[in-house]
Write a structure and sequence with these properties.
Elements: E1 5-8, E2 12-17, E3 29-34, H1 36-46, E4 51-58, H2 61-72, E5 80-83, E6 90-95, E7 103-108, H3 124-128, E8 132-136, H4 137-142, H5 144-160, E9 163-167, H6 178-189, E10 194-198, H7 199-206, H8 211-222, E11 226-230, E12 236-240, E13 243-247, H9 260-273, H10 278-293, H11 305-314
Parallel strand pairs: 1-4, 1-8, 2-6, 4-5, 8-9, 9-10, 10-11
Antiparallel strand pairs: 2-3, 6-7, 11-12, 12-13
Helix pairs in contact: 1-9, 7-8, 9-10
Bound molecules: 2-keto-3-deoxygluconate.
2-keto-3-deoxygluconate binds next to β2, α1 and α9.
Length: 322
């Protein structure tokens, strides 16, 4: 059955510090199924969309955990290859130190199964039949073969008329140097139909300071007329084929901000696919991002349809988030 959203990228086991502070003093870690593109798939599936992930997982306990979790969430895992030779990637999350409310990550993913993802793992028909193909700068960074797989999927989707979605997600720890990131991410942006980024990424990749410059440069250099800027606690602003909207973020207690961006992307894309319009899609995405940061783990608090309405009612019903 054709998918609404197909994503290409690496799921990871997240070992999240139960207590705040430097990792050397943390005694307990919680295990969560995460990874940027997987998060987007789960966000979409929770809203009743058909989502599927193209990836490789280690045929090990962590890989089985992630595959079963994704399957349980309703994500199509039929294009997930279980790799008997390489391990599933993991990472640790340090929370609230040195900056309260901010998390840091320590990756153990070099040589992971997903870094061996290659063009051969991309089922072209599966991609061509989807409505949206989503990937991120993380997949472009983890290895040359994963990069080629993501680029191939983007080309196939674009040719078939699907919306190609790219979240820049520049993770400095994953790139050899920033010149390479600018070059590779630029090539991917040229294939994309919608790009999500934050202000730092806009500055790094586009040399654009500020929202207007980001929109202008994205269109001038890459012909992008659909751009969403995630501004963290300051909300988000989007330009979508000439229409422009700005939405504030919801103020909530932050347990761990990791995963907020993916919640935003997954709910935004799903809402747009449901025909909800730009502003409503942004408000719902913003609600989902807020829900996710109140707990550890990226996916547990992703909302189901009714939950978004309950959340919004909790913030005053007919919220005008301007
Ligand atoms: O966006 C959240 C992700 O960054 C997190 O789950 C880990 O995918 C991850 C990564 O590569 O940093």
């Amino acid at each position: 059955m054709p998918m609404d959203i197909v994503a290409v990228g690496e799921p990871l086991v997240q070992l999240n510090a139960v207590t705040r502070g430097p990792l050397r003093h943390v005694q307990y870690f919680e295990k969560h199924s995460t990874g940027s593109e997987a998060n987007v798939c789960v966000a979409a599936a929770r809203l009743g969309m058909r989502s599927g992930l193209i990836t490789r997982l280690g045929n090990d306990e962590f890989g089985l955990f992630i595959r079963d979790w994704l399957r349980g969430e309703g994500v199509d895992v039929s294009r997930v290859v279980m790799d008997g030779e390489h391990p599933t990637g993991i990472y640790f999350v340090q929370r609230g130190y040195p900056v309260p409310g901010v998390s840091d990550v320590v990756y153990y993913r070099h040589g992971s199964a997903a870094s061996f993802l290659s063009e051969e793992d991309v089922d072209r028909d599966y991609v061509r039949e989807s409505r949206v193909l989503h990937t991120t700068g993380i997949t472009l960074a983890i290895s040359e073969s994963a990069r080629s797989a993501a680029m191939l999927a983007m080309d196939e989707a674009r040719r078939a008329g699907a919306l190609v979605s790219l979240d820049l997600n520049i993770r400095r720890k994953l790139w050899r140097n920033m010149d390479e990131a600018v070059d590779v991410v630029g090539k991917a942006m040229a294939k994309a139909g919608v790009v999500f980024m934050d202000e730092e990424e806009a500055s790094m990749i586009l040399g654009a300071e500020g929202v207007d410059a980001a929109f202008r440069e994205a269109e001038r250099r890459f012909g992008l007329t659909k751009v969403v800027l995630k501004l963290g606690r300051r909300g988000s602003v989007a330009r979508w084929d000439g229409e422009e909207e700005r939405v504030n973020a919801f103020e909530v207690p932050v347990e761990d901000p990791i995963g907020a961006g993916d919640a935003y992307v997954g709910v935004f894309l799903s809402s747009m696919l449901k025909g909800m319009g730009l502003r409503k899609s942004m408000v719902r995405a913003s609600a989902a991002a807020a829900m996710v940061v109140t707990v550890r783990g990226d996916e547990e608090n992703l909302p189901r349809e009714g939950d978004i309405d309950v959340f919004l009612r909790g913030f005053g019903g007919d919220v005008d988030l301007r």
